[in-house]
Write a structure and sequence with these properties.
Strands 1, 2, 4, 5, 7, 8 and 9 form a 7-stranded mixed β-sheet that branches. A two-stranded antiparallel ribbon has the order 3-6. Among the domains are: 108-151, GTP cyclohydrolase I, N-terminal domain (GTP Cyclohydrolase I, Chain A, domain 1, Orthogonal Bundle), CATH 1.10.286.10; 162-293, GTP cyclohydrolase I, C-terminal domain/NADPH-dependent 7-cyano-7-deazaguanine reductase, N-terminal domain (GTP Cyclohydrolase I, domain 2). It is α+β, with helices and mostly antiparallel strands and 295 residues long. It has 12 helices and 9 strands. Helix 5 (112-125) packs across helix 6 and helix 8 runs antiparallel to helix 9 (226-241). A hairpin with a 5-residue loop joins strand 4 (173-185) and strand 5.
Amino acid sequence: MATVNGKDLNMEQPAVPPSSLIRRVSSRSIRNSISEDKENGVDNNTKGSFVSKYKKAPEAFKSFHINDVENELEVPGTPMTPRTSTTPGHENCTFHHDLELDHRPPTREALLPDMANSYRLLLTGLGEDPERQGLLKTPERAAKAMLFFTKGYDQSLEEVLNNAIFDEDTDEMVVVKDIEMFSMCEHHLVPFYGKVSIGYLPQGKILGLSKLARIVEIFSRRLQVQERLTKQIAIAVTQAVRPAGVAVVIEGVHMCMVMRGVQKINSKTVTSTMLGVFRDDPKTREEFLNLVHSK
């Protein structure tokens, strides 16, 4: 929402990086709001009161995503997954309209020969000899690497969540911070990387903690801009567990600013998306940000 300064599901890899810090904390802000209203003689049932909305009419927050978020998971600029008839190169595929036909969209591995040829042309265009020993297998290596960098195109939210949504009678804030993130800038096809922190306020359902890290992987492993990535992660969590609110903060380093252009090696970009209670209640938002920035 704001900008400052500016699986393959591989089960052998940890879903949550070791540096991640997982905290379940009391939503002090909600209780503080109640106590302050009492001290000031405010009727918590007053129409429009934050406390009355949250404690007396939670459906007001349950519905915040239904009208504004429900259909926005695939933000314009990022192709739908899995590949459909609207994916470039599949506009005329009759398979998408007749499931009895044998045709299927090509697997990612089937794309390797054409991608390798493209890299071979690129090397030639740079004045290199693709046939010399050091570059002989570089086109194939580069094609495989690019497919890995963008594997999120072939992952869906439902596949990654794998029903890891559990009923739990809790409304305490859940925060997972410092999830490592690697992505590719869609403007220059160079990497950007950083850390993602996610918080949400459950409403009877919680998400397996590792799934938050996997959601980050789905959307970061695509050609991206950081602003869109932040929003996509927040919307995905919203669709998964219907919380009272979701907050996402990403701090990233963009190699397109470090290696080229202005070459500002110490610059960082911070983006955030706040939905529901995190947007409407400053104290809840402040509590989350304090936890994210604490050591």
